[in-house]
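Progress against Task 2.4 (sequence-to-structure conversion) is shown through the following example record, which the project officer requested during the mid-term review.
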Amino acid sequence: MTCTWTLSGFGDEIDPDPVVQLAVLQALGARHVEVRGAWDTNVVELTDDQVDRLGTLVAHRGMAVSAVASPVGKSDAFDPPDAELERLKRAVAVAHRLGSRYVRVFSFYRADGVPVSDIRDPVLARMRAFADLAERAGVVLLHENEKGIYGDVPSRIVDLVEAVGSEALRLAWDNANFVQVGVRPFTDGYAPLRPYLAYLQVKDAMAGTGEVVPAGEGDGELRQTLTALRDDGYAGFASLEPHLARQHARGGFSGPAAFGRAARAFRTLTTSIGVELA
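Structure tokens generated for the chain above:
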């Protein structure tokens, strides 16, 4: 069985300069970029002129934007909600300007000592408001299973997406993040989450240490996951987010050489199961 997925990657994992980001991605065979930051500026903080300049650079390369990787929802569940809604509005506006239908979001942290059950109601209310905005704007929100947020394990992710009940809220699947919260991604999460999975973020991790490693070199059950997606007819994006040099609250960094190593590891894995990357 052979199928084709669309390769993308987090440009700011490569370099702050989008010219370098796009050159490296194109050299690795990608025709898309996932935009989290450019010129050392987060995507929701870029000015309109910067967004337009970035869009021009992407277009001149004959490339496109797979998703806007916003930080929306990476805040405390009890912080005033208006600020995050405004950041989402900005992320949606950037997505429109860059021609992308996907915007990444998260489902909020909680303070130390706060039971996760205490944040369920505020999280669901905020995510419903996010989905309402997305529905009006004609975009799809991709919830990433970031460690430490409400939706970091399969049971709460299912609760979140089913309680919100919107086609404008789907899932960005990240194997490494699951490993880092003690979840076996394929074994524990694939069956309940597959109906809502719309986007693949590619990285792997070691269960014992949480260290992020290239795809197929960790405990993230990448081969099982990718094979099941192939068999299920998945035909979407596969976006490289290697985090091989450093990881921090707003993302991570790899640099061109390590990013290339991650891309080659992923392509070796997909080729071995009959998946082409284009």
